[in-house]
Amino acid sequence: MIKKQSLSVQTLSSLAGAFDRMTGAASVGALTLAAALTPTLPALAQTQSGPLPPIRVEAPPEKPRAVAQAKPKPVASQARSASGAQKLPPIDVGGARRSARVAPVRSALVTGATVSSGSVGATSTGAGSAAFAAAVANVGRNPTDVHGYFAGRISTATKTNTPILDIPQSVTVLTRQQLDDRNSLALENALAYVPGVTVAQGERNRDQITIRGQNTTADFYIDGVRDDAEYYRDLYNIQAVEVLKGPSALIFGRGGGGGVVNRVTKKADGETINDLRFVTGSFGRKRVTADFGRAITDTIAVRLNALYEQSYGYRDFDKLERWGVNPALSWKPFENTFVLFNYEHFRDRRTVDRGVPSFGGFQFLGENIYPGYPLPTPRSAFFGVGNPSVRDVNYSRINMDRAALVIDHTTEFGLNIRNQLAWANYDKLYQNTFPDQTLGQLSQQLNPALNGLSPITITPVGVARLDGYLAPTPRRNIFNQTDLTYKFEMTPEIRHLLLVGTEFGNQWSFTGRDISRFNNPFNGPRRLTTPFWAPTVYAPVFFDNYFDTATRRWNTNLDIGSAYVQDQIEVTKYFDVLAGVRFDSFHMRFNDGITFENQSRLDNKWSPRFGLIFKPVEIVSFYGTYSRSFLPQSGDQFNQLPRSAASLAPQGFENIEFGFKAQLLPTLLFTGAIYQLNRSNQALTLTALTSVLANTRTQGAELGLTGNVTDEWQVSLGYGHQDARVVSTNSAFNPRQPFLTDVGKVNPSVPRNTFSYWNRYDLSSFVGGGPGVLGLGAGVIYASSFYPSLDNRVIIPGYARLDGALFVKVTENISGQLNIENLTGAYYYASAHNNNNIMPGAPRSAYVTVNARF
Fold first, then answer.
1. How many CA atoms lie within 13 A of 445 on its CB side?
2. How far apart are CA 62 and CA 277, in angstroms?
3. Phi/psi of residue 117, each to 5°?
């Protein structure tokens, strides 16, 4: 207990700084204390004759276990360990210590509360309190310090709650408000506004993206756990979407060469929530979501999110029906222990529509003389077969069940132990018919037998060729992650946050493929042709061509064992170091059900990561980072291991990146990065049945601005520049096409420039209303032209799309919004899977959303 005595302003500041350094909390508390005492300072100063002697501050002694009293909690936005206060040894604070770096305004939900054990008027820590909600957010690794579009801290990049300023990596966080304001209902909609990310077509049965020139169908996660099955992901139960760019093998293991996308689920945080959301609009969209949550006891909170949607689309025969339910529970059985449980059942069935083919182009001796372009057709035209109906022949369905259990405990001496067990079963099947050949494409090559040129060949000009197959791709995953986190000091100037962890898992997959026969189930042709002005064919189709070479019956069983260590080191207030390494053992067993071939392969790989951060001032950081990752030759979906791949080394990723981050305002973050990403031993697809091993290089730069410019104006802006090319291949020289080379070709689905800008402005003051009564939103998405295939024979033109929104609040409990996409009605092509699966973008579309809270 410090006796009352006269204090100078300087001495009081020293005391506040000592308290701040001893507890590890932000200096916000000390500044608040100073502000509270300011009125008494003049009087106290009159009796002050000299400075105070040095002060030694020690942590309070441990309370006896028999006394059931709450222990102090750390401020949630500052705590690296989420589940409870850490017990610190006595610390001599005579030396200088680093102060809190940023002091943005924080909401009660984010920061939690500091609890005075046994004191009168102590803040509650039970379910339903701000402290409970903050602890659940940290244990669940949700973004914290969230204000509108701004997120100040995340856990996904390091597995510790870390300020984004202190992460040596390019990070984009899409908060819940951003998702709602833009009416982003699914992951593919949300990622359209992320710089450096291109949303690919995914054959219209799965999420597929390109990050920093690296195509992926598997680098998706839920709460930090792999979610790599092929399906479309809805956002009804998601609190935020985090996009981490560059290799992240230290945290996530294999893959993730260009980056990863992590969906953060809504947690049972004890807040009373009774929300309903209705969406309707263009193309018969009908969607309702529900979000209910509450504390049911002082230690247990529950939450339920649910979805149902039935919608149609701007393409002929397009239909979507999906529903999901996601109960969650949070339990605090002991003071420093939390248990989180989450279960989701999700179903999605939709029409599979792979778009339109391309037209034209001329290749001479292997050199592209002029390119082809998407076939000019009505944007609604469906190329495929529909007998007995288009929706019966062309569809994708997924039935997913997933459960996750997190147990988090912090010991009396400050060691945080966290274990997460996740199980998922994906029952996936799709079947489709689609165009597979460019119309009117010219080519000419040498003919050695004639000692000259062969005749020019041309594909049919007015005829589209259709192919088809059926593909069941079920998967079952189980993962267990254990993390030990401990914070300690070497000296007053050097502090460590050490993470040691393991991950074990098993993934079983089946990949089947049955090829189409048209007209006759016994000897009908595999492909069918139709005039391009009549793209939908009503001929019988049977998926029973079992003797075709493309037929598949692949079973894979994958065992994963990993261990990793990471150290986040604070070296004075100016430098941070992040260093770590991960070891992965990847054992895959493969069985071909047609040839009865059995193979296996074991890969043991080390993946290091090193980053250095320099902070000349508290709100600005500069960083440099180096990281490596790998991907076995079995590919993203590890669904094959033919002989050619069984003996090949894994693909490698190596990333060098330099960047900056500046917190221009308390809730406005400006970021930038330049990088070079090298990928080795990559299998690049040339045709449906052939590929080439290549080394590629992506060089690029990114800029981002996210947060609140003023209390009324929120922005999300991003620009990405990418140059992704093949630097070498194992292709053999072709004497018929002497100019043909893959070196220098541009990677598929990589626009040179992308730009997105969304902002919302609150106009309530102009109409005399409170915040949120009236608002406007406007946005633009731009992408330059790109190639859909490695041969670079077809170009997808660039485009710009303008969006808008109107927000109104009718009462405190009823609000609504109107979103209009593609305000100008531009005709554009949004994505592609290859030269002949190109998807036109949607026309002008309007959607009305009504939010009810009770």
1. 14
2. 48
3. -65, 125
At 728 the three-state DSSP class reads: strand
Q: Please say if the pLDDT value at position 163 is more than 90.
A: yes
For residues 650-676, average pLDDT = 96
Rounded average pLDDT over 336-355 = 97
CB atoms within 10 A of CB 422: 22
Amino acid at 152: G
- As a three-state string, the secondary structure of 519-588 is CCCCCCCCCEEEECCCCEECCCEEEEECCCCCCEEEEEEEEEEEEEEEEEEEECCCEEEEEEEEEEEEEE
In terms of Cα–Cα distance, which of 51, 57, 49 is closest to 17? 57
Cα(204)–Cα(199) distance, integer angstroms: 11
Q: Which of 340, 342, 327 shows the shortest CA–CA distance to 409?
A: 340
* Mean pLDDT computed over 319-334: 98
Q: Is 42 helix (H, G, I), strand (E, B) or coil?
A: helix
Cβ proximity of 357 and 836 under 8 Å: yes
Question: Per residue in 243-257, is it b (16+ CB within 10 Å) or e — as a string?
Answer: bbbbbbbbbbbbbbb
Structure tokens at 673: 């990065």
pLDDT greater than 50 at residue 852? yes
How far is it, in rounded angstroms, from Cα 324 to Cα 344?
7
Q: Tell me the one-letter amino acid at 496.
A: H
Q: Which residues contact 682 (CB under 8 A, 6 or more apart)?
A: 651, 693, 694, 695, 696
Smallest CA-to-CA distance from 473 within 589, 543, 560, 554 is with: 554
**Weakest mean pLDDT among 80-84, 123-127, 178-182, 781-785:** 80-84
Closest residue by Cα to residue 316 from 393, 232, 379? 379
**Cα first-last separation, the chain:** 47
pLDDT in tens, 693-729: 889 999 999 999 999 999 999 999 999 999 999 999 8
Q: Which H or E run contains 821?
A: strand 814-821
CA distances from 258 to 224, 233, 586, 654, 722 (A): 17, 20, 20, 10, 12
pLDDT of 351 > 50? The answer is yes
Handedness of CA 638, 644, 650, 654 (dihedral sign): negative
pLDDT band at 650; cut points 50, 70, 90: confident
**Mean per-residue pLDDT, 760-780:** 95
**More confident: 435 or 648:** 435
Q: Distance between CA 813 and CA 806 in Å, rounded? A: 18
319-334 vs 337-351, strand pairing mode: antiparallel
Going by their DSSP bridges, the two strands 238-245 and 225-226 should be labelled as unpaired
Order of strands across the sheet that contains 367-370: 367-370, 362-364, 442-444, 457-458
Rounded to an integer, the average pLDDT of 538-562 is 92
Report the relative pairing of strands 442-444 and 362-364 from DSSP bridges: parallel
What was the pLDDT predicted at 638? 77
CA dist., res. 343 & res. 425, Å (int): 12
Residue 641 binned pLDDT confidence (cut-offs 50, 70, 90): low
CA distance readout (Å), 151 to 139, 246, 269, 661: 17, 20, 18, 13
The per-residue pLDDT for 10 is 43
- Adjacent-strand bridge partners of 152: none
Quote the pTM value.
0.85
